[in-house]
Design a protein that fits this description.
The protein is an alpha/beta fold. Helices cover 27% and strands 32% of the residues. It has a single domain, classed as Rossmann fold (3-Layer(aba) Sandwich). The protein contains six helices and eight strands, in the order ααβαβαββαββαββ. β7 and β8 form a beta hairpin. α1 packs parallel to α4. The chain is globular, with a radius of gyration of 16 Å.
Amino acid sequence: MTDSEWAAYYDALKDRPPRQTTLFAARRFKTPGLLVDLGAGGGRDTLPLVKAGWRAIAIDKQASAIQAIRAATPPSMAARIETRQQGFEDADWPMVDLTISCFALPLTPKPAFSGLWARIKDRLKPGGRFAGQLYGLRDSWARGGAPDGVVAFDRPSCLSLFQGMTIEFFEEEEHDGVTPKGQKKHWHIFHVVARKN
């Protein structure tokens, strides 16, 4: 999509609540800490947590995403959120309590995924959590695992990513539906929250 198409996408989602995985993970911390949001979009998941007292690093390669987050951040919250315009597969960040990546990790270039995933786990503090989505092989964007499709996994391979972590929430979803842009799509998604041991 072009940056203007991404901007329209973020605008369409701006009034939706944070994803279930984000809320599930955040509620398991006694006090707010530091989070990183990989593929932060317009801030749908990050901004409500910042409002609740979290500090955040929001990373997205789209200029429109960073603009949307900045526009939606009240001045009273600005000191608690850092925005970075870059691809998260190339990004580095400090140790965090929570990593959020909602529907973004599957878009990682396939050769870069293993290194990114190792960095995600490495940058989590002990007791820190990952919250987000990964795609299954039957997702229409995965194209049956074809080289030109998004990063996708079967269920055992998805679960194996979380070695050294305790899975606190895991839900597999599969259905025919539409994208936020109204396009028909077969969804095959793993929703995951996992805590680093």
